[in-house]
Amino acid sequence: MAEFSIIETYFSRESNSSVDLGVGDDSALLTPPSNQQLVICTDTLVAGRHFPLDTSPHAVGWKSVAVNLSDIAAMGATPHSILLALSLPNIDEEWLSEFSQGLYDCCDQYSVSLIGGDTTQNPHLTISVTALGFVEQGLAVTRSGAKVGDLIVISGSIGDAAFALQHLGHPLQRRLDYPTPRCELGRQLKGLASSMIDVSDGLAQDLGHILAASHVGAKIDLSRLPIHHALSHLSENKQWQYALAGGDDYELCFTITMQNYEKLLQLQPNVTTTIIGQITQDQNLTFEKDGLDHPLQFNGYQHFA
Ligand code: ADP
Ligand code: MG
Questions:
Q1: Binding site per annotation, positions for Mg(2+)
Q2: Which of 176, 202, 160 is nearest to 59 (CA)?
Q3: How many angstroms separate the alpha carbon of residue 171 from the centre of ligand 1?
């Protein structure tokens, strides 16, 4: 099977009507909505590095889209389309068929179109997705807007994926294989959150990026961390380790005033949100339990460690 028939067979489904020209020409064409900014990001998944080698191809397809939509959501933007750069060691039609189904399932769930890409042969399976989205001019939520006194809030539960990675076959493996990009919540937070990030490398590290960009610190109440009940048999310390240093959760961590948080709750987000702490003036990340400081040391995922 040649490169062109791979593209035609697996990656040429019709785009949404908002795409002027999709897969098949030298480039795709879009007309940006007026008064909106283009939001773009890329994330690469390397087999064996970003997902276990025996992950189902359907899950790999889903996840390669989901991790990018999560980055778009973390800006308060609405995802619109993706491009796919695929490096395949060989042509395995069964793999391609399931992979493309997983990719399109995630696209369909969030009304996103695959509008182009590149297909190459390479000894190592590598999937690079670029996502495009739009947000009203000036309304994107960046990492740099956290203010002293803001609440720190996290969606869903954290640590599930890291736990699952060490317990393959556990029901929580779904959280690892099929992350849910918080697209609706991200959009609802536009104009409400002061800063936001999606948690891909562990909460401690990712919140650290907000703190550094905003020149503030944070105090986290360990007893408030939303940890899945499947982890409740573990020691507290082990649970915190998963929740704070585990990666791959793709939940949204944001800072927000109490007043705006109440406005968010009135919008009835489709995922639970939990206040876990507060932004402080001193530029450190500290933890407390039962009102007392509780020093902890955590490292998130380091790509070049
Ligand atoms: P060119 O040689 O001009 O770069 P290609 O032969 O690489 O074009 O690609 C032909 C068309 O197929 C282009 O529209 C490109 O965006 C699209 N395409 C290539 N690979 C993929 C892929 N894996 N997924 C989606 N679209 C793809
Ligand atoms: Mg090309």
A1: 26, 42-43, 71, 118, 198, 201
A2: 176
A3: 37
Ligand nearest to the CA of 82: 1
* Cβ < 5 A residues, ion ligand 2: 118
128 C-beta neighbours (distance < 10 Å), count = 18
Q: What is the pTM of this model?
A: 0.96
Cα(147)–Cα(257) distance, rounded to whole angstroms? 9
Starting from the CA of residue 116, give the closest ligand: 1
Q: Are the C-beta atoms of 74 and 189 separated by less than 8 Å?
A: no
C-beta 24 within 6 A of ligand 1? yes
pLDDT tens across the length of the chain (305 residues): 788 999 999 999 999 999 999 999 999 999 999 999 999 999 999 999 999 999 999 999 999 999 999 999 999 999 999 999 999 999 999 999 999 999 999 999 999 999 999 999 999 999 999 999 999 999 999 999 999 999 999 999 999 999 999 999 999 999 999 999 999 999 999 999 999 999 999 999 999 999 999 999 999 999 999 999 999 999 999 999 999 999 999 999 999 999 999 999 999 999 999 999 999 999 999 999 999 999 887 655 666 65
The CATH fold of domain 151-293: Phosphoribosyl-aminoimidazole Synthetase; Chain A, domain 2 (3.90.650)
Thinking of the domain 3-136, which architecture would CATH place it in? 2-Layer Sandwich (3.30)
| Backbone φ, ψ for residue 41 (5° rounding) | -150, 160
Domain boundaries, the chain: 3-136, 151-293
